[in-house]
Amino acid sequence: MPVLVVNVDHVATIRQARMGNEPDPVTAAHLAEMAGAMGVIVHLREDRRHIQDRDVEMLKDVLKTNLHLEMAATSEMKSIALKTCPYMICLVPEKREELTTEGGLECLGREDFLQSFLDPFHQAGIRTSLFIDADRYQLDAAARTGAEYVEIHTGHYAEAKNYKERQKELEKIIAGVSHAQELNLKVNLGHGLNYQNIFGFSKVRGIMEYSIGHSIISRAVLTGMTEAVQAMSGIIRSFVD
Ligand code: PXP
Fold it and tell me: Atom 12 (ligand 1): residue with closest C-alpha?
């Protein structure tokens, strides 16, 4: 059965807008777990634009499900991840100027580097995943690195401008899923998935995890709006002149 793993980066994005301490991504992670998420994902970016090192440490301490750490393949992230010991790491490409991860990791021709990067994680019993496009050559290369999982990038599907383009991207992902499974890679999916486009995968078998953040946090902001305004309005109305 596939499971949902919730990315709470954007709770931290809102917090960092004021550089304060709310909303707390750790509290959001607890609520996600209580609602049925089987894990929580954070991306500790080099520029620390949302998740901070302390969030990662606290999540590792308090989560009852699994902590997934998305990270660039740098030596700084490697040492943080090995110290933290998350359930799984997922290597992603990272550019400072991007708003979010824009594409899959380049694995082709980098198998040796990636294999030696992942090696200490395997020795430490940490599951490893590579975020890649649904491209058979990249998947072949991913398998050669010894990674246990791939997360196939669903962003191009999510961003497709029309039905025809969306179907084309969906078919590419479905072919990628089968190819990865033939290579004995476990398959996760993620990026840009929302309450509408997720249905495209309803008949796709063998997916281990769906990694979803932005659409869930967006919905949470709006579904929580009425209650939040009522609470503040109630306080102000209780003031007497
Ligand atoms: N998977 C990866 C590798 C990502 O970089 C992201 C974005 O942080 C996600 C999944 C979640 O994407 P979204 O926030 O669009 O649901």
Answer: 191
